[in-house]
Amino acid sequence: LKNITIYGNISLKAFSNMNVGAFDASYATITGVIDKAAFYHAVTKSMNMAYITIGKGIGEVAFQDLFVSTGALNMSHCVIQENGILNGAFSFSTIEGDVDFSHCIISGSIGVYAFQQLILDSSLLFSDVEIYGNIEENAFASTFVEDNVDFMRLNLHGYIGQSCFYQITAGSFNMTQSTIEGSIKSKAFAEGDFHSFDLSHTLINGSIESRCFSLANIYGYMDFTSTKLYGDIQSKAFQLVTVHNFLLMPHTFIEGTIF
Q1: CB 13 within 8 A of CB 39
Q2: How many CA atoms lie within 13 A of 241 on its CB side?
Q3: What are the backbone angles phi and psi of residue 203, rounded to the nearest 5°?
Q4: From its phi and psi, is residue 3 left (phi > 0), alpha (psi between -120 and 50) or beta?
Q5: Which of 4, 16, 174, 236 gets the most CB atoms within 10 Å of its CB?
Q6: What Rg do the C-alpha atoms of the chain give, in angstroms?
Q7: pLDDT at position 65
Q8: Distance CA 69, CA 125 (A)
Q9: What is the predicted pLDDT for the residue at 54?
């Protein structure tokens, strides 16, 4: 499907349960939506959808239970228009390589449970992504990432939702040099397990809400160096957090109240 133009949708289990060596839809243009379990339970060694343009977004459960056995799910430099990535779109999938959405433009939110309970043997890459919406509640909840989660230089025009990364397990979590136009909601990173956590040099136009990081476990450092927070740090935001190395907050600016 490389370079193909589809004036319509990929829908209704179109590629569900397929088993192929590799799937390549890079540089494709789809004017409609990918939805309705289009790739449900598909099996492939690699899936390349880099530089794809999707006119009306990725719908509910479109790629649910996807299995990529050796390579990456590559959607880098994609443009996802109108509706963003909807509820459960990639949930319960297993990817042996990277999941790569770096340099994407998403005109909408990342929906509820969109990437819930992913199992990744490599990294989750959302660096240099522009999201014209929110990262909704439970979007990445209970996901396991063997290596790194990278949201470096994220430009988020909304909030990080409640329990968004709840109980996520990852190597390093990097959201440095980002802009978040809303709050980081309650329990967003609660009970997460990280080798390191970096939110340094980031602008947050909202609050860090109650129990945001409660019961999180960071084996290395937790870094908020030079971060600007135009809101409050609310009650119990860091309740029972365990940091095995350093908690770094030099040059941090907080306009609101810590309570």
Answers
A1: no
A2: 24
A3: -105, 125
A4: left
A5: 174
A6: 18
A7: 97
A8: 18
A9: 98
CA distance 76 to 50: 5
> What letter represents residue 72's amino acid?
A
Say which residue the tokens 């809303």 belong to: 182
What is the tens place of the pLDDT at every residue in 178-195?
999 999 999 999 999 999
Pair 176, 203: CB distance under 8 Å: no
- Rounded CA-CA distance 71/47 in Å is 7
Give the closest residue to 83 by CA, choosing from 111, 53, 115: 111
Residue stretches of the chain with pLDDT short of 50: none
- Write down the mean pLDDT value for the chain: 97
List of residues 6+ apart from 153 with CB closer than 8 A:
127, 128, 176, 177, 178
Beta bridge partners of 169: 144, 193
pLDDT at position 259 is 84
Query: What are the pLDDT digits (tens) for 133-192?
Result: 999 999 999 999 999 999 999 999 999 999 999 999 999 999 999 999 999 999 999 999
Q: Is 3 exposed, middle or buried (0-12, 13-18, 19+ CB in 10 A)?
A: exposed
Rounded Cα gap, residues 134 and 108, in angstroms: 7
Q: Environment class of residue 225 by beta-carbon count within 10 Å: exposed (0-12), middle (13-18) or buried (19+)?
A: middle
Query: Which of 240, 193, 258, 183 lies closest to 249 in space, CA to CA?
Result: 258
Instruction: Using the Cα atoms of residue 72, residue 42, residue 52 and residue 90 in order, give the sign of their dihedral.
Output: negative
Q: Give the pLDDT confidence score for residue 209 in this predicted structure.
A: 98
